[in-house]
Amino acid sequence: MGQPNPVGVLDKAVAILHAVADEPATLAELVVRTGLPRATAHRLAVALEGHRLVRRTPEGSWAPGPALAELNRGTPDLGEIAVRHLVALRDATGESAQFYVRDGSSRVCVAAAERTSGLRDTVPVGARLPMTAGSAAHALLAFTPAEEVTRLLPAASFTARTLLDVRRRGWAHSVAEREPGVASLSAPVRDASGGVLGAVSISGPVERLGRRPGAEVVGAVLDAAAAISRAGR
Amino acid sequence: MGQPNPVGVLDKAVAILHAVADEPATLAELVVRTGLPRATAHRLAVALEGHRLVRRTPEGSWAPGPALAELNRGTPDLGEIAVRHLVALRDATGESAQFYVRDGSSRVCVAAAERTSGLRDTVPVGARLPMTAGSAAHALLAFTPAEEVTRLLPAASFTARTLLDVRRRGWAHSVAEREPGVASLSAPVRDASGGVLGAVSISGPVERLGRRPGAEVVGAVLDAAAAISRAGR
DNA sequence: ACTTGGCGTCTCACTGTGCGGGATGAGAGT
DNA sequence: ACTCTCATCCCGCACAGTGAGACGCCAAGT
User: What proportion of chain A, given as a percentage, has pLDDT over 90?
Assistant: First the structure.
C-alpha cells in the first residue's frame, strides 16, 4: 500500500505511465517494470492509449502519449519561471544556481545560471542526477511521503534524520556527496498544499561555500525558492 | 459509452485531468465540468493529487500537477521537431506553415514558419483556434474516433463527408472557413498506430493558394507531415 | 516441413473495489 | 444565533475490473 488514498485502477494506470516515461517498453517489459499480470497491463495500456496518454511506437512498444503534453499545456514551465530567479541568486551569492525537478528515482536540472568566471560547478540543463546524493535530493525528498523515501534510503548517502533536519530548517546542505570538493545548498519549492514542485540549489567549491553555510547565503536560497513558489501558482 | 475499451475509473480520472487542464477548478466547478457526483470527483481528485497529476492552488482549486511534465519529459517536443520541417515547407511552397495539436475542443499552434514578406496569413505560436473550422481541424478530426467527432459536428462548418474525403485523400483543404480570403491545406501527422499527433498546415490568400490546391503543394505538405511523423517516433 | 516458445490479444467467472447519497464540520454572511 | 454553501468523509452494496488460461501469430530452431 503505497498511496495515502489508493484507487487501485488509477494506481496501476499511473504505474504504467511511469514505466514508459523514460524508455518505451514492449508489453513484456511493461509487465516486468510494473509487476502487473499481463492481461491487466495490456487492458490498462489499451485504455490509456484510448485516452492518448500512451501510444505505440512503430516497433510496437508503449511510450508516453500526446495527451500528456496537452494536459500540461496550460501549466507554466517551472524551468522558464525559475531562470530569472536563478540569475538573481547567482548574482547574490556568486555561485552557480540550478533548479531541479524530481523524475522518479532521478532528478533533472531544468534550469541553471552559471557563475560566469573562475572555479565553478557546472550542471547542464537536462542533466539527470541521482536522488541518492546531494542537497537537492534532500530538498526534493524531505517533504515526500515516507513510503517513497523508504525505498530510496538504503542506497542514499543520507538518512531519515538528514531529511528531518531539512524539514525543520527548510533547507538542505551537503559536502562532497555528489562530487568531491563540491558543496551545495538547496531549498524545496512547494505548492499551496505543500507538494514539492522542485528544488533550488547553489553549488560550488567547499573552499568558498564552506562546510557550514552563512545565514546570508541561506537566506538568498530561501528567498529564491519562495519567489519561484509564488510565481508557479 | 465514449471510449472503445472503457475502464470506468480511468475514464473518470482523465475527465478530471481535462477539466482542469485549461483553468483551475474548485471542487464545485469540477463537479459541473465532469458531470461526476461530488463524492466521486473529490475521491478521484485526491487520488490524482497523491500521484501528483493534479495539485491544489493557494485558493484551493484543482490544477494540473507536476507529474504530467515529468511523465512527458522524455518525449521530444513535437513543436521543436516540427519547426525545421515547417521552414522547409514554407520555402518550398512560399506560404506560411504551422503545426497544430489538438487540445480538447480546440487546436493550438505549437510551431510556425511565416512567409517572410508580402501578403501572408499569420497564426502566432500559442494561438488557440476552434475545431469547428479550418483545414487543420479537418485533418485533426478525420482519424479521430467517431464519438468525439459527433459531438463537434453540429457546430462545425464541415460535415462527416468532409472528413471521409480527408481520410481517402490524406489531406484537407478549406477556403474562407476560419477567416475570409484565407485558404489552407493540412495533413495529419500520425503515430505508428494511426493515432493523430497533430496537423501540418499551410495557409495564405485564396488568390495564391487557389480554390483547388496543386499537386506539388499537396505533395510538399504530405512530405512535411510524413517527416514529422518519422521524427516523432 | 514441423515443432516449439514467446508474445500480444481476448474471454469470462468471480470477487474485491469503487460508488455516491447523505451525514458532518467549517467558514462566511446576515 | 442562525442559515447557507462548500469540502470532506463514511460505508453498504452492486458491478467493474481482475487475471488465469485459451488462442492466434510469428519467428527461431531442428
Answer: 52
In a domain, B1, yes or no: no
Same domain, B57 and B134: no
Q: Where is pLDDT greater, at B192 or A139?
A: A139
Residue B86 confidence (pLDDT): 95
What's the CA A42/C1' D29 distance, rounded, in angstroms? 29
Number of domains in chain A: 2
Residues B170 and B68 in one domain: no
Residue range A27-71, pLDDT digits in tens: 999 999 999 999 999 999 999 999 989 998 888 899 999 889 889
The three grid cell numbers given for residue B20, joined into one nine-digit string: 482542469
Torsion sign (Cα): B131, B132, B137, B143: positive
A1 touches chain B (CB under 8 A): no
Q: Count CB-CB contacts under 10 A for residue B49.
A: 18
How confident is the model at residue A105, as a pLDDT? Answer: 79
Separation in Å, CA A175 to CA A102, A159, A183, B177: 21, 15, 4, 63
Q: What number is the ipTM of this complex?
A: 0.81
For D15, nearest residue by CA–C1' is B8
Angle (deg, nearest 10), helices A8-21 and A38-50: 80
| Sign of the torsion angle spanned by Cα atoms A213, A217, A219, A223 | negative
Residues 125-164 of A with CB under 8 A from B: none
- Whether residues A72 and B73 touch (CB distance < 8 A) is answered with no
Q: Does A77 touch chain B (CB under 8 A)?
A: yes
CB contact (8 A) between residue B70 and residue A102: yes
Instruction: Decide if A74 and B233 are in contact by the 8 Å CB cutoff.
Output: no
The pLDDT value recorded for residue A1 is 38
Q: Do B5 and A46 touch (CB under 8 A)?
A: yes
The Cα-based distances of B175 to B116, B129, B143, B161, B223 in angstroms read 22, 16, 21, 16, 22
Instruction: Let me know if residue B3 belongs to a domain.
Output: no
